Amino acid sequence: RSVFRCLFANSKWAVMCLLTGVNVRDALNQAMDEELERDERVFLLGEEVAQYDGAYKVSRGLWKKYGDKRIIDTPITEMGFAGIAVGAAFAGLRPICEFMTWNFSMQAIDQVINSAAKTYYMSAGVQPVPIVFRGPNGSSAGVAAQHSQCFAAWYGHCPGLKVVSPWNSEDARGLLKAAIRDDNPVVFLENELMYGVPFDLSEEVMHKDFVVPIGKAKVERQGTHITLVSHSRCVGFCLEAAAVLAKEGVECEVSNSLLDIIFVSVSYTNGLFEEGCTPLFAECPAFNYLDAPAVRVTGVDIPMPYAKILEDHSVPQIKDIIFSVKKVLNM
């Protein structure tokens, strides 16, 4: 008992981690809480983030702790409050701008791209823009076409933005802290269906200074036959598919995120499966190591249907990953 108190005395969240794991929602909440406490320039604004504790309860408890000046409820006007946040970043503050869903960022895309993304470069590095735009991204469940779009590729093609798409609680906690501390604008794409999923976190990850470097992929599972590359929720799908395929003698390597890990992985697995990956791989040196063409498994090219059975057939499933791996390996 005394050892327990010694190890975790400085972290109430570590106790939760030891007992039940930390879900993605709480990991995000912890990251914002610790960064708000660490740097008085950090503040959060968006619709329902304060008194209501956030539409998805990601900001739960922060308004009571930090008050109206640090946790700010805004009107329903994405263009307006995104512009306020960008201006605050110009003035030296470090805003976290929450979109209730990234689909609503379309109302503020001029602020995100023309104001936030381009200013640091156009000022020759004189004017940093330390802002994080965050919120749920991609398909959820039963929310139809206008609430189900994935903006990873949209914003990933815009120079000046760092785009982050976390999978588990370690990603969420470490990457959000890194994003808040970054002097560049960061687009932080969460997944609504992952908010309540718990993951065990180590004492190292629970440390207040732990960050995950932006732009560094991680091998979640070692393998020798083929590399599965994904991000966000589909990393879990790839791991589940890899477990099924292992029973058939196929060892899949699973990479969480994109290009910097692909060369290393593909150079010895000699095959590649991509989920929602950018087509830049064709220009990567690893292309020469492939024994078969790369295969992409993504959502079908239609607006998201509302009906659940159609929705399930519109987004990648574990069976689709298994089918594609077998296709690449000629099984």
From TrEMBL:
PANTHER family: DEHYDROGENASE RELATED, PYRUVATE DEHYDROGENASE E1 COMPONENT SUBUNIT BETA, MITOCHONDRIAL. Residues 22-197 form the Transketolase-like pyrimidine-binding domain. The pyruvate dehydrogenase complex catalyzes the overall conversion of pyruvate to acetyl-CoA and CO(2), and thereby links the glycolytic pathway to the tricarboxylic cycle. Pfam families: Transket_pyr, Transketolase_C. It catalyses: N(6)-[(R)-lipoyl]-L-lysyl-[protein] + pyruvate + H(+) = N(6)-[(R)-S(8)-acetyldihydrolipoyl]-L-lysyl-[protein] + CO2. This is Pyruvate dehydrogenase E1 component subunit beta. It comes from the Eukaryota. Transmembrane segments: none annotated. GO terms for molecular function: pyruvate dehydrogenase (acetyl-transferring) activity. Heterotetramer of two PDHA1 and two PDHB subunits. The heterotetramer interacts with DLAT, and is part of the multimeric pyruvate dehydrogenase complex that contains multiple copies of pyruvate dehydrogenase (E1), dihydrolipoamide acetyltransferase (DLAT, E2) and lipoamide dehydrogenase (DLD, E3). These subunits are bound to an inner core composed of about 48 DLAT and 12 PDHX molecules. Interacts with DLAT. Keywords: Carbohydrate metabolism, Glucose metabolism, Oxidoreductase, Pyruvate, Thiamine pyrophosphate. Its EC number is 1.2.4.1. InterPro entries: PDHB_mito-type, THDP-binding, Transketo_C/PFOR_II, Transketolase-like_Pyr-bd, Transketolase_C. Its cofactor is thiamine diphosphate. GO terms for biological process: glucose metabolic process; pyruvate decarboxylation to acetyl-CoA. The keyword Oxidoreductase applies.
